[in-house]
Amino acid sequence: MIDLASIYHRTVDNYCYLHDEETLHIRIRTKKDNVAEIVLLFGDQYEIVDYKWITFRQTMEKAGSDCLFDYWQVSIKTNYKRIRYGFILKDWEQEMTLTEKGFFPFVPEDAGLFFCLPYMHKCDVFSPPDWVRKTIWYQIFPERFRNGDSSINPEHTIEWGQEEPNLTNFFGGDFQGIMDSLDYLQDLGINGIYLTPIFAARSNHKYDTIDYFTIDPQFGDISLFRELVKECHNRDIRVMLDAVFNHCSVEFPPFQDVIEKGENSLYKDWFHIRNFPLKDGNTINYETFGFYEYMPKLNTANEDVKRYLLKAASYWIKECNIDGWRLDVANEIDHRFWYEFRATVKAINPDLFILGEVWHDSVSWLRGDQFDSVMNYPFLSKSLQFFAYDMISAQQFAEDLTTILHSYSDNINHVLFNIIDSHDTPRVLNECHYRKERVRLLFTFMLTFPGTPCIYYGDEIGLDGGSDPGCRKCMPWQENQQDLELRNYIKSLIAVRKNTPLLTSYGTLYFLPAVENCFAYYKKNEHEIVLVLINKSEIEIHYTLPFSLKGKKITLLLTQQEYAAESDELSITLAPYESIVLSFAI
């Protein structure tokens, strides 16, 4: 019997969305292995001939399964912009029709009972900048990347890399150091740089902004930054800055005014102040980021605050031609502010990328009226659970990824900001307990998975580091301190991603059954399949591909080796901790 209680659909977000102006994607979730077939019935509610509603039928595809559910989907194009639809669900002994008004043991004739998408508006298509899904990002923590101009070093700057990083020390990284390293980044294959905050601040991390309109002098000035952006653009490298609008520094002039004047300050409503005095013994009477009293939380619902921050966001786009904003602690700022933020910055540059820092389910920010993407921390968490911690099996990993992929639309999945570590987490090498064979697998996975991947500076040459501040070490520039073999491997993976359009094009990702701790996934179009096999085990694995391949040319994309399959069934042998990326014609 069909388990009706487990069936889920709604007419918004990841279950019903416009993929483009003419194409509608519809999904439905059912209990795992409970439904044999689903047919979508649809039509324009106004198309009636001889008192009968004209409908069409299209069989849905089972696109994936997790440990509890099957996910079905279909892509349709209609003659009109209006659509009513329902689902005909079949098992081996029963047939039911699901409409907006419930289940029926027959197919109702009344169009008014069915799910409704009133009109397919072009402006409702989730449309992030097209360049984002083709970008390989490189995150730079400017203070620790490279010291290119010692004349602007902060006071008490330590010789490069001669101490472990802590919360207060400085090593003098700057814009000139980044300029001097663009050949290195270009050679690696990077075409997007994400810079953590660069504005005037007291700390080494710069997340405590004092002046949103001034470059921190330890990095350089606005002229040098303009030159950096221009040179990046000359190399087809995009530049994204970090905006800290949730909170500021205690030294931010408006907050200093509140400290000085208390309730008489014109800026008291710029912050979330519970009462005065601001500090009573050990009690802080104002809201902060976390419980850090030196970072008071801004009241982004205040019109003056909003005007100030939106002016700052606009200023750097206009003055320096940046390509994106990464928004720090974005989930703790009101949605209304982000609506206005998007309208403001997109009016200046419609192709600007808006990336929100949200560590949890993010659908409410990804409806086309706020962010283009979020940092994909669920991807990070599950990747480490499988590759680094051995917490889950290959099959469970594939199922968990299926859950993540079906939490968002295909349009969103292909621009999610995929990371395997960052300035807020331990380094991937540390997470893998220095087992570089696992690090290689993680990079293979990230660089062949849907989304826009980001490499944290130094990961590509084996830089280590524990939790913050340990993950913010100085980048070593002497080749004898770099793992060049790892770098060359990652460089090869980047080249494969950039030279294989199917990896970055829209479309479903399919998982194949896991064998031991080896799993496989693929994407396809009308002409080609690109398939990835990853063996995260200490034993050799023989994986039989479920495709008819006799006589077809198979290309190993990392080595560009080609050979023809001699039989329909092809078994791939993977050595311990080996991964393979291959393609073949359909």
> Could you give the order of strands across the largest sheet?
13-14-17-20-21-22-23-24
Q: Please compute the radius of gyration using only Cα atoms.
A: 26 Å
Determine the number of helices (DSSP H or I, runs of at least 4 residues): 14
Structural class: alpha+beta
**Helix residue percentage:** 10-25%
List keywords for this structure.
586 residues; single chain; 14 helices; eight-stranded parallel barrel; 23% helix; alpha+beta; six-stranded antiparallel sheet
Draw up the topology in text:
Elements: E1 16-18, E2 24-31, E3 37-43, E4 48-49, E5 52-53, E6 56-59, E7 61-65, E8 69-76, E9 83-90, E10 95-99, E11 102-104, E12 115-117, E13 137-140, H1 142-145, H2 175-179, H3 182-188, E14 192-195, E15 199-201, E16 209-215, H4 222-234, E17 238-243, H5 253-261, E18 279-280, E19 283-284, H6 303-320, E20 324-327, H7 335-348, E21 353-356, E22 373-376, H8 377-387, H9 394-405, H10 410-413, E23 417-418, H11 428-431, H12 436-446, E24 452-456, H13 484-499, H14 501-504, E25 510-515, E26 518-524, E27 528-535, E28 541-545, E29 553-556, E30 561-564, E31 570-574, E32 579-585
Parallel strand pairs: 13-14, 13-24, 14-17, 17-20, 20-21, 21-22, 22-23, 23-24
Antiparallel strand pairs: 1-2, 2-8, 3-6, 3-9, 4-5, 7-8, 9-10, 9-12, 10-11, 15-16, 18-19, 25-26, 26-27, 27-32, 28-31, 29-30, 29-32
Helix pairs in contact: 6-7, 8-9, 12-13
